[in-house]
Write a structure and sequence with these properties.
It contains 17 helices and 19 strands. The protein has 429 residues and is of the alpha/beta class. The chain is globular, with a radius of gyration of 32 Å.
Length: 429
């Protein structure tokens, strides 16, 4: 009886719905036929258009072909960006930074630059900060020096590419018997009638003496990249000792002021960088050798020469198109990855900052990079310095080379360094 009543109630409900112009939904089952036919093609929702646009990358000329190959591999692996045309153009780190500072809007979307340009590029709005996700990857995979060089305040603004911008000693091992001591190097060079090259009138190489002695010369910048303070103590006992060591070097008949293997005429040893490794190998042939910088006597103590270390970075320009920004971020992370850094070393010899790539046997066997790696433990990353600093350092070095301080006592040397120090302080604020 209950089943009959339930069936009658169900029929009443169906008739009531039909009277209102509605139909009951069919039961869902694997065998149930579709309720309605598919909409005609002209009524179906149109698929979203694929994102498209253009992207420009600036790299030094020596890495253009390599970068094009890497970009092509990335684009093949990311069909979602197939609508973007990517151009790779030859613009060196220095020119890239200058061009971005002049007109960032017309500049590249991704570009190489040296770490000493970071503050100026941030101030000019030419760099967008690295995403939080990518920043964590960069910090985990690269050496601390390169990450610090790409950071301003607490913000990472660029992707490290190398840890190979610094200087060390190339030498002829048939002449130089003890590359660990500057006095021994000079003695060997003098005895053989050969030359020792170091560019002591350069703000890049000159700090090797002062930083080795324990002196400081750095600048603080604000969030806009303006210089706010100079931290310097050259006018000190340590500074006087460093200056006296430079004077003694300049007095040696073997000393020549310079830092380019290609421009050296009779060298047995030269302070230079990895960029000249090919020329040094050709010059010294089977006697080619490399070492960290030597020690020098400062105030009667054998002191390891220090100096600057530098890094190549990859920056991304701020974007208004979110898809293009995503492409820039992914592509920059890829081009700075350990895999690509190692491939770049094999292709053009750039020394990696990625810790895994640095541990590769080929990199470890590179004499120039090994010497630089050892020397970098005695250096500081080159930060931001006012343009006038470089001219001031040149003037100090020229005075040493010209013999102006050869007869000066400690008081006179202290006075010269005090003037240098006060001038440096005056460049800030």
């Amino acid at each position: 009886m209950k089943k009959i009543l339930a069936m009658l109630l169900a029929l009443v409900m169906v008739f009531a719905l039909a009277a209102c112009g509605q139909s009951a939904a069919p039961a869902q089952s694997e065998s149930a036929a579709p309720v309605e036919e598919a909409a005609p093609a002209e009524e179906a929702a149109a698929p979203a258009e694929a994102a498209s646009g253009s992207l420009k990358i600036w790299v030094p000329e020596a890495t253009v072909d390599f970068t094009k190959e890497q970009v092509a591999a990335f684009m093949d692996a990311h069909p979602e960006y197939a609508g973007f045309a990517v151009a790779v153009e030859p613009v060196g780190e220095g020119d890239a930074a200058s061009n971005m500072l002049t007109d960032a809007e017309a500049g590249a979307d991704i570009f190489n630059f040296a770490q000493d340009q970071l503050a100026r590029l941030v101030s000019a709005g030419a760099l967008i900060e690295v995403s939080e996700e990518n920043a964590a990857i960069v910090a985990a995979e690269n050496d601390a020096g390169s990450v610090a060089a790409a950071t301003m305040g607490d913000t990472l603004y660029a992707y490290p590419l190398t840890s190979d911008n610094g200087y060390f000693l190339y030498y002829d091992k048939s002449v130089v018997t003890d590359p660990s001591s500057l006095s021994a190097i000079l003695a060997d060079c003098e005895a053989a009638g050969k030359d020792f090259y170091m560019e002591i009138n350069s703000g890049w190489y000159q700090p090797a003496f002062f930083f080795g002695a324990g002196c400081t010369l750095t600048y603080d910048t604000d969030a806009e990249g303006a210089f706010t303070a100079c931290n310097i103590d050259y006018a000190s006992e340590a500074g006087v000792g460093a200056l006296k060591a430079m004077i003694e070097l300049a007095k040696s008949p073997a000393f020549k002021n310079g830092s380019s293997v290609s421009n050296a005429t009779n060298p047995a040893a030269i302070v230079d960088g990895t960029w000249d490794s090919g020329a040094a190998k050709e010059l010294f042939g089977d006697n080619y050798a490399c070492a960290k910088l030597p020690t020098v006597s400062i105030n009667g103590v054998d002191t390891q020469l220090g100096g600057f270390g530098g890094f190549k970075l990859l920056g991304v320009k701020p974007q208004t198109d979110e898809t293009k920004l995503a492409l820039c971020d992914e592509l920059a992370l890829f081009l700075s990855s350990g895999e690509v850094q190692l491939a770049r070393y094999n292709a053009v010899g750039w020394g990696p900052s990625n810790v895994t790539a640095k541990a590769d046997p080929a990199v470890q066997a590179d004499e120039a990079l090994a010497a630089l790696g050892e020397q970098l433990t005695y250096t500081i990353p080159q930060g931001q310095y006012p343009g006038d600093y470089w001219g001031l350092a040149t003037a100090l070095g020229d005075s040493v080379i010209g013999g102006e301080y050869n007869s000066a006592d400690d008081a006179a040397l202290m006075a010269a360094l005090q003037q240098f120090q006060d001038t440096c302080i005056g460049y800030a604020g």
